[in-house]
Amino acid sequence: MKKSIAFVLAFMMLALVGLSGCSGTTSTAASAAPASSSSAAPAASSAAPVPAKPTRSDLNLAIGTVSTLDPQASTLANDVLLYRQSYEGLVSIAPDGTPVPRVAESWEQSPDGLTYTFRIRKGIQFHNGEPVTAADCVFALERGQQQNILNAYVEDIVSISSPDADTVVIKIKAPNSAFLINISQVYIVSKKAVETLGDGFAAKINDAGTGPYKVAEYDPNVKIVLKKFADYYGSTGNIETATYNVINEAATREVAFESGELDFIEVPTSNWSAIESSGKYNTVLQETAKVCRLCMNTYTDNAVMKDKAIREAVMYAINKQAVIDVALNGLGVVANVFCNPKYIAGSSLDGVTIYEYNPDKAKQILKDAGYANGVDVGNFLIPNKNSMPEVAQIVQSMLAEVGIRTTIDQTDSSTASARSKTGDFGFYMNVSTMINHMSTMFRGFHSSGLATQCSKYNSPELDAYLVAGGAATTVAEMNAQYAKVNQYVADACIDATLYYLTIPFAWDKALNAKTNVDYYYINEWNWN
Amino acid sequence: MHRYVIKRLVLLIPVMLGGILIIFFVMSLAKGDPGSIILGNAGTEETIYKLNLSLGYYDPFFVRYFRYIKELFLNFDLGTSWKTGLPVMAEIAKRAPVTLTLAFFGVFCAAFIGIPLGILTATKQYTLLDDIPTAIAMIFAATPIFWLGMLLVLIFSLNLGWLPTFGSTSWKNFVLPMITIGLVYGARQMRYTRSSMLEAIREDYVRTARAKGAKEGTVVWKHALRNALLPVVTVIGNEFGGLCGGTAVIESLFALPGIGSYIVTGINNRDVPVVTGCVVTVALLYSCVTLIVDLTYAFIDPRTKAKFSK
Description:
- The complex is a heterodimer of chains A (about 525) and B (about 300).
- Chain A is α+β, with helices and mostly antiparallel strands.
- Chain A has 17 helices and 19 strands.
- Chain B has about 300 residues and is mostly helical.
């Protein structure tokens, strides 16, 4: 009798092996060619183009949980993604770091760099139909000054005034080459709309923005529906309704995309090759300014990496391209400076020392410095996300090859971030997002912010370059000063940068989508 | 009976206080302060310090603990999320129905599958009708719930296109999550029902029932099952209680906005008020479910009822 149950179990196991084999093929077949049954319809409709009339006017997207509709109350990535569609600042920043007119039609900077005069765009309206006045802009900017989260962007503002109904004048404490980039983070909201909604402004649908889409339905845990704003001053595509579905799980997003319920997704790295090679979707590999940084502890009492020779050896010991190929499936670009020169204003590779992979040289440097038998540098702290565990393992073995020994110390990201500020590590590695201006380096490397930094590299010379770059009043001067920052950081071997993350996106064949270094704008998209 | 219920409800208070103490202690061991989390990259040392001070982060442990208890019992306030700034109580109130619906229908589906099969396998012991369901149950009981959910999505949503892959707006969204929970938990319930039934069938009173000439159906349903159900009800209750906080995997897989996914987001963000609030809620739900289970015994088993009334 026991025999029969064993027999049945054995049979079930065989069946399961067969089933999992099948499910493996169905799932790869599904990811490679799902159109056979369910998504045949959209493919067919795109195959028969109707020239004048677009195939669709709605758009289904995925987003993580959204926290607030008050565009001045959050800088979380999900929230900002939504704000970009509905709200605008005086200016916005193009992917290459240059300012683009939005609510302000034009602006002037005084020769001393202390006064900015913005002209409000003629005929621009809020979603409630009221014209945008200088008084609204002053109200919004002053409201922004009250928000903790925007503090870093508005702290140097001395006064905001409106000499007439179309002009806003902002005075700042000292020349700041990042001023326009900072002010682009403060969204302009209608005074009337904010005051009418009062405390409910953050959680209710408002008509306070000027962007190309207005929020029509809002359930932050389920979905957010955007409708095209008919009176938008700029160009808009043929997408009338965009629905952001709240889905936090990447695997769920992918299945929803393949079944046709979503039109555009960020593809999970592991499924990228299947999605790309299926040929069923438009795909792009979007290079970003998210940089993987290997921070080296030089400041605690027992930190051996105070010795520059070890840091230099680290630079030569890491084969960045191999790290990208193995740990990231090739989804990255080698980084030699923190700020990706492609996207970040002021960053360049001019005169920057590039450390090509050279393990023999690394060994030689260590030997000359008296570490012929290798050196222990302590723990290798990493957060358990962003492929960090995989990257760390490879880096660890590359370092071991030249004689630099370290033990991986993996924890959740909040703990890792907190420990990185106390010096409780030998190496600390993480992926950081940089804003599109070299002034982002100030926070990470100027001695005034040592307490919140992981490198805590205190150098008056570097401080001077950072200050000079920030205070530059012309682009040329700013570039010259910031070039010295990149050169100094590389020469002193303060931290290593491994790669800029590349993010894969996929979308429906019939959709003309455009991705950006950080955020996309739906009004630039179209259905064929 | 009333006295018993009131006694149990009063006992909830020390349970909750202890639960909050434990979770408060554990969370206080974790590194990271609210200022750095709220301000993120925009924070300077000074603004972070000021914010932490205004949130009372530097107060001693017990001062924070008693403040929390006070707010909870006097104002029903669980604080505000560090990350989003929204009140935790309102968020939980919005999400609880989703989790409770999921847990209820999941357990219902599990019982619907598990109990009849358990009875069948016990009455047909050592036949194919026993072996096949038992073997299947072993497999489902050992299946990771995430994998099973994903497999069902691939089959029913992607390939067959019958059901949506995500969302929580229509009943259709709950079908796959319910079946996923039903299969895994149903397998466990089947095994409990089977062993419990097997024991009951061998009892003297069942033999007596047969001896007096009762029909086989009456013997199984009236004499054996009613006695065999007690441990099964306990299991169902525990599963329901556990699911109130433990459907995180299912919730994130099917993009259902429930308490489970909220707690996971809270943990990832080191959002102490969210985690504490969720744990308190789940503890409360679990305690209530346990109480309800204990009361159901009275309906199933007259002996227990007699004890209650004393």
